[in-house]
Amino acid sequence: DGGITQSPKYLFRKEGQNVTLSCEQNLNHDAMYWYRQDPGQGLRLIYYSQIVNDFQKGDIAEGYSVSREKKESFPLTVTSAQKNPTAFYLCASNLQGIPDTQYFGPGTRLTVL
Amino acid sequence: AQSVAQPEDQVNVAEGNPLTVKCTYSVSGNPYLFWYVQYPNRGLQFLLKYITGDNLVKGSYGFEAEFNKSQTSFHLKKPSALVSDSALYFCAVRDLYNFNKFYFGSGTKLNVKP
């Protein structure tokens, strides 16, 4: 899982609550990403950030928010507006501007009770 | 738009037999292609990549992939499967116009039976 950590590994939330998933990397990567993975489906991009204090919406940004105050950190908040938040969330990062691979964290499994 | 397709949801193979996991791509221009493996409740692990050069790319754990431009394919192969290879495999392509976007296939579950 490279130099990317995600916490917590498992997270339970009651309906109507906001929760924040942590993602930290020590790879000195500029670009960071959040993906959502549902059973039997591929990865869907929620948000990505190419540089500190800047981020872009991915394909399924509704109900999610992010911040990028530090290069190493890219937390994801799952808000109460996300209607079906139960999923496996993956954070990733890569070097910017060259066709290198993406590195992934171990993931956080969020379950709404 | 860039995309990859994995036509098989599941591949079953006996231990010791060769395995192939299929991937086709659709890009305008030269593709940057990747294979990843995912074990249950884990993140994706990088296996190999094709950027340019030799069409046969060798990667981790004895896997290799063959880039075929005429067939727009990038199939993952291994000469002799192990039970421990059982996992979910993803093909991905990197956006040529925005290096910071990756497109992933839907994944193929590989089952290797003893």
Short structural description:
The complex is a heterodimer of chains A (113) and B (114). Chain A has 113 residues and is mainly β. Helices cover 0% and strands 50% of the residues of chain A.
> Helical stretch count of chain B?
0
Class of secondary structure makeup of chain B = mainly beta
Distance between the termini of chain B: 41 Å
**How much helix is in the residues of chain B?**
under 10%
Measured as a percent range, the helix fraction of chain A is: under 10%
Largest interface: A-B, 29 and 23 residues
Sheet-strand content of chain B, in percent, reads over 45%
Account of the protein in words:
The complex is a heterodimer of chains A (113) and B (114). In chain A, the strands form two sheets. In chain A, strands 2, 4, 5, 6, 9, 10 and 11 form a seven-stranded mixed beta sheet that branches. In chain A, strands 1-3-8-7 form a four-stranded antiparallel beta sheet, with no helix packed on it. The mean pLDDT of chain A is 92. Chain A is globular and about 40 Å long. With 113 residues, chain A is an all-beta fold. Chain A starts with a strand and ends with a strand. Chain A has no helices and eleven strands. With 114 residues, chain B is mainly beta. In chain B, 0% of the residues lie in helices and 52% in strands. Chain B has no helices and twelve strands. In chain B, strands 2, 5, 6, 10, 11 and 12 form a six-stranded mixed beta sheet that branches. Chain B has a four-stranded antiparallel beta sheet with strand order 3-9-8-7, with no helix packed on it. In chain B, a hairpin with a 5-residue loop joins strand 7 and strand 8. Chain B is globular and about 45 Å long. The termini of chain B are far apart. The mean pLDDT of chain B is 92. The chains are: A mainly beta (113), B mainly beta (114). Chains A and B meet through strand 5, strand 9 and strand 10 of A and strand 5, strand 6 and strand 10 of B.
